[in-house]
Amino acid sequence: MDPAPGGPVSARPAPRLLTALAGGVPDATPVWFMRQAGRYQPQYRQLRTRYGMLELTNTPSLAAQVTVAPVRDLGVDAAILFSDIMVPVGPAGVDFEIREGVGPIVARPIRDAAGVAALREVEPARDLPEVLEAVERSVAALAGVPLIGFAGAPFTLASYLIEGRPSRQYIETKRLMWGDPLLWEALMRHLSRVVGAHLAAQAGAGASVLQVFDSWAGALSREDYTAQVAPHMRRLFAHLTPLGVPVIYFAVGASHLVEAMAATGPTALSVDWREPLGQVRRRLPPGMPLQGNLDPVALLAAWPSLIHQARTVVAEGGRQGFVFNLGHGILPTTDPETVRRLVQWVHDETASSRPDGGIRP
Ligand code: CP3
After folding, report:
1. CA-CA 20 to 30 A from 283: which of 54, 77, 131, 293?
2. 189: annotated active-site residue
């Protein structure tokens, strides 16, 4: 019988992603993928023949369309806002482009006090209304499926602003960090404010999870991370905690940093494929949720090899407080049908309705 109008309606079960990030056991393991919206999708490539990448992020109807598509096409348990980590530094005064196959290119890299002093504060409602409208439109279209808002972490953004382009060695970044600690501090504080405001605004517009991409933090020694980056992350996460939204902290090649990253105060850690999840978990505070960690290249391998690796991820991740993801973004040459089959496989393999309760002997 339908509930009486205005009467109690049956409660919708909590989304799997939120259950897992609260440290619980969902009815099946939630799955989403970094870069689940992008060039590996035919519809995305089609849109890109007509619009530039930044044009897409700046047009709320198109950004929402691209954001929502993977939920419909792949059956993933969350959408991530279609945007880029560089978007909020635009209104701070940084002139950049995103070059296909390369990444962000900054017109005038920041390497001195004048460059840092010229940075402006960012007020998302005033400076990034298109992004917030894209969040609102996505949330409306997702009908209860969680939307993940995101930002780059201050260190990873600083590395682009200082190097001016993607880097392998981070020579100029480390030169500034070691050579002028006060200037480094000023830059990191400025970027932390931009990132904190941007994340809070996305949560305010309806994002129910936030992810902070510190993609390149693994380039730092544990000592440098702890002294020069961790204090800023601690302040950022403390700023976000009152929002009541779970925050996932991600880095690549950062196995040596997991304890230090966990200690900065995120809700959950997202890790790459270099260390088995079970080992990572033993190094984290008890109960801290974990996300990861399939090698994105596994999606290019033959199905049996992919499933062999996915099975390891599911077994190591466990049923409680675990979100299935990749260790980094989906590669552009990935077949979307393989991604869709993998989502289905993870859900089937981990479903609590399985005769064995989702637990294999
Ligand atoms: O689906 C999603 O994950 C959401 C959207 C998203 C993009 N970038 C879209 C994008 C997210 C979360 C990001 C974050 C981002 N951007 C990071 C952190 C994650 C990571 O990969 O480590 C970084 C380092 C960037 C900077 C950046 N922007 C790079 C390295 C590139 C790739 C350049 C290339 O052509 O390979 C971009 C461009 C970009 N951002 C694309 C997409 C879909 C490709 C755009 C296109 O050419 O159409």
Report:
1. 77
2. no
- Amino acid letter, residue 282: R
Tell me the CA end-to-end span of the chain in Å, nearest whole number.
41
- Tell me, yes or no, if 35 is annotated catalytic: yes
- Any ligand 1 atom below 6 A from CB of 131: no
Q: Note if 84 is an active site residue.
A: yes
Find the helix packing angle between 336-350 and 303-317, rounded to 10°: 40
For 16-350, CATH gives 3.20.20.210
Choose one of 80, 84, 138 to mutate for the ligand 1 pocket test, by most ligand atoms within 8 angstroms of C-beta.
Answer: 84
Q: Residue 103 CA: which ligand 1 atom is closest?
A: 33
* φ, ψ of residue 148 in degrees (nearest 5): -95, 120
| Chain centroid offset of residue 279 CA | 22
Catalytic residue among 27, 35, 165, 341: 35
Residue 187 main-chain phi, psi, to 5 deg = -65, -45
pLDDT digits (tens, 9 = 90+) for 211-253: 999 999 999 999 999 999 999 999 999 999 999 999 999 999 9
pTM of the model: 0.95
Cβ-contact 132, 202 below 8 angstroms: yes
